[in-house]
Amino acid sequence: MSTPQKLYEGKAKIIYPTDEPEVLLAYFKDDATAFNAQKRGTIQGKGEINNAISSHLFQCLEAKGVPTHYIDCPTPNEMRVKRVKIVPIEVIIRNIAAGSLCKQTGIPAGTIIEPTLVEFCYKNDELGDPLLTRERLLLMKLATPEQLEKIAQLSLQINQILSGFFNECGITLVDFKLEFGITSQGQLVLADEISPDTCRLWDQSETDPDRRVLDKDRFRRDLGNVESGYQQVLKRVLEHSSNPSE
């Protein structure tokens, strides 16, 4: 049987059609990029790890009432998802100051952010995914006011659920990126993935600012042991999913 022609290939995934018009197949790659793809590499086993983590977290969120595009995982590297029209906005949720926030504002890394900061970026590689105000997003008609309000509301709900989940895994959810899409029925749902590629995750048992990193910052900052960081997140997620505290 021939492989279907891909619909889209991004930095971390390839999207294929299926026999069902409203269902797509996302293939998770081992490719790694940083700094808007200026740095490239490979993280061995990343595709399978991110697919497994995303699968478990999507199911966790669905159980808590958050609509997602997730359907199931037919293979270790593949996820079946609902076909959606992606809203061209990247949402960044920040619980602790890190990364670009510190560079752009001078806020010391590690500063607790209260209340949680929700930021919007224009999903456009050519422009470098710029940070935009709500007014600019509305001016550009990237979303309706109602959609933007719903996205912000869902993002805070997701943050509350995931922060609690990771905390029970002994991991601090520092910040993370979300993407949303709209189904053919007009429902706004969480899309893309939730993984060490899209989250900053710190090991609560480590105080060293380098050793505690369990996410793509290990690749960005050349900290080494990138695969082991990702594997540690998966191990704890699977353990928590098998033995939930609730």
Automatic annotation (TrEMBL):
Enzyme class: ligase
Catalyzed reaction equations: 5-amino-1-(5-phospho-D-ribosyl)imidazole-4-carboxylate + L-aspartate + ATP = (2S)-2-[5-amino-1-(5-phospho-beta-D-ribosyl)imidazole-4-carboxamido]succinate + ADP + phosphate + 2 H(+)
Gene3D superfamilies recorded: ATP-grasp fold, B domain (3.30.470.20), Phosphorylase Kinase, domain 1 (3.30.200.20)
Domain SAICAR synthetase/ADE2 N-terminal: 6-236
Pfam families: SAICAR_synt (PF01259)
One BP annotation, GO: cobalamin biosynthetic process
Entry keyword annotation includes S-adenosyl-L-methionine: no
An example Gene Ontology molecular-function term: ATP binding
Pathway the protein acts in: Purine metabolism; IMP biosynthesis via de novo pathway; 5-amino-1-(5-phospho-D-ribosyl)imidazole-4-carboxamide from 5-amino-1-(5-phospho-D-ribosyl)imidazole-4-carboxylate: step 1/2
Region forming the signal peptide: none
Keyword annotations: ATP-binding, Ligase, Nucleotide-binding, Purine biosynthesis
Similarity field: Belongs to the SAICAR synthetase family.
NCBIfam families: purC (TIGR00081)
The name this protein goes by in its record: Phosphoribosylaminoimidazole-succinocarboxamide synthase
